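Researcher: I'd like a structural prediction for the single chain below. Treat it as a standalone chain; there are no partners to consider.
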Amino acid sequence: MKIEQIYTGCLAQGAYYIVSENEAIIIDPLRETKPYIDRLEKDGVKLKYIFETHFHADFVSGHVDLSKKTGAPIVYGPTANPDFDAIIAEDGQIFEIGKVKIKVLHTPGHTMESSTYLLIDENGKETAIFSGDTLFLGDVGRPDLAQKAASMTQEELAGILYDSLQTKIMPLADDITVYPAHGAGSACGKNMQKETVDTLGNQKRTNYALNQPDKESFIREVLDGLSAPPKYFGMNVALNKGGYEDFDTILKKGKQPLSSEEFEKVAEDSGALILDTRSAAEFHKGFVPNSINIGLQGDFAPWVGAMIVDVQQPLLLVSDVGSEEETITRLARVGFDNVIGYLNGGFETWKNAGKEVDHVNRITAESFAQQLNDSAKVIDVRNETEYAAEHVNEAYSRPLVEINEWANNLNNDEHFFLHCAGGYRSMIAASILNSRGIRNFTEVEGGFNKIKETGVPKSNFVCQSKTL
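Model: Treating it as a single chain, here is the predicted structure.
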């Protein structure tokens, strides 16, 4: 028997590839199927089942494409009702793969179809659970995403999740290995550990959610401090439940190289959003006017989902040369399938053609410290917990995810400084503000991480209610 965790850091997502004898299963695959098919061919095994722990909200699964290419059926837990052929398993149902077995444990609460898959090895020993979004390391799945579909409140769903954990997970042996669907950085939980594998016994001891004295305490603690889910979550659920266009078609459509003249014309005619995926360090020096910068080398896909409201929005790419396919792939993982081309040769093509170029005014933390005075306005786009821990004295807390709300209150006649933790999020904010004609600002390179190294006065007094 072989168990491989295929972890994708930018999504904080774990897929699983399990082989016994000449048969294999894959649990919660990502959108692109080639890496899985390559594994199957290398191992000389047949894919028998594709198991889905639930209808995912934070990424588009590869289940539909993988089933079409391999003939393997898709398996969901009880109550699932996808718009494509699938096996809807019963609670406790056993599936055989080679000499091992998978037992379905229906564990609703995160969603109503959520299920945990219990692996029983060749000797009949219960060895591991693939817990999806039911149980994370350090946390449990947020119970507020399925309220509309389940016609329940988040409190009711949290109560159901508590019952699932108490009746299906907690009775299992302490030496069972826990393989969750997500780790730290995912928006599907709030308190996840950086580790991606643990024993159930350690989780019983250390996971706050598993150590509540009763259901009421569990509901209160699990719901406390939940931020609003990203806007693209609902659209991803719809794609995972209803099916989607073949990924190979999406890739072919997006890999259309455009000259600077073609790029400019397509942008004007299509109303496409220009997405520049270069680093903040490169973007600020020069970019196509009205571009939005979300760097590929970061939490790219989740931030695209958080910042671009409509997954059907046509997109034109400006990327580092050679990274176009990776960019299209990572966009497709979160349902952004409407890439219609990219600037051939990257930004240098645009600049060398003599086209108009825009810039963001960026300074070092040392220059910021020198320019800061009592009348200066500072906007901190980190999240509220980061801000509360420590921030520039008298800075405004304006999280990036809420930029559509607070940007309208800015006075473009009044200069302000803009920063995040390291420069990634503040450059996203800078590009959005710039595209809306708000230009009287200076972005701080290295963000608060570098500001801390200067003598700039800092505080943990919360000033979030201050009006701009």
